[in-house]
Amino acid sequence: MKKLILKFTGLFVAVVLFAGMSSWLMGHFWGSHSHGDSRPHDAIHHQLGLTSEQEAKLVPMEDRHAEAVRQGKEAMRRASEELGRAILSDREDSPRVHEAVEKIHLAMGDLQKATLSHIFEMKEVLTPEQYQKLLELTVKGLHEANAD
């Protein structure tokens, strides 16, 4: 029983750490763009010194990214609920538990990929200097997310 508790604790810690890093990258660093609170997003735009023309060109990209994030968060929510049901039902380290964890990992990975695709897509609108700054901010954000 002690071994089972240690396995679940380790699994839970891994999921929480991965979720925290993903959430930080997409939420804190990028904000929610045109939907809701966009202070981190506005701060990045300010740091990049975007022109109004660049801002306008970024709107469709950011709307697509916001929708991808919404869908990804919903997939993570569903997978987390599935994991909870599997833990309560199976009460052990079962194939259903592992499958649910894998769904959470896939959803988190999809969210990270969507955010990185958005960052790389912005290159077409930014000057080389702005794009370099964006990449530096991205790397800084990743380092800060892992420093906690």
Can you give me a brief rundown of this structure?
The chain has about 150 residues and is mainly alpha-helical.
* Average pLDDT score: 81
SS content category:
mainly alpha
Proportion of helical residues: over 70%
Series of secondary-structure elements, N-terminal to C-terminal: HHHHH
The rounded Rg comes to 18 Å
CATH topology: Four Helix Bundle (Hemerythrin (Met), subunit A)
Biggest pleated sheet: none
The top-level CATH class is Mainly Alpha
Q: Total number of β-strand segments?
A: 0
By CATH, the architecture is named: Up-down Bundle
Give the oligomeric state of the chains in this entry, treating copies of one chain as homo and distinct chains as hetero. single chain
Query: CA-to-CA gap between the ends?
Result: 31 Å
Strand content: under 5%
Low-confidence segments: 28-37
What's the shape?
A: elongated
Tally of discrete structural domains: 1
Number of helices: 5
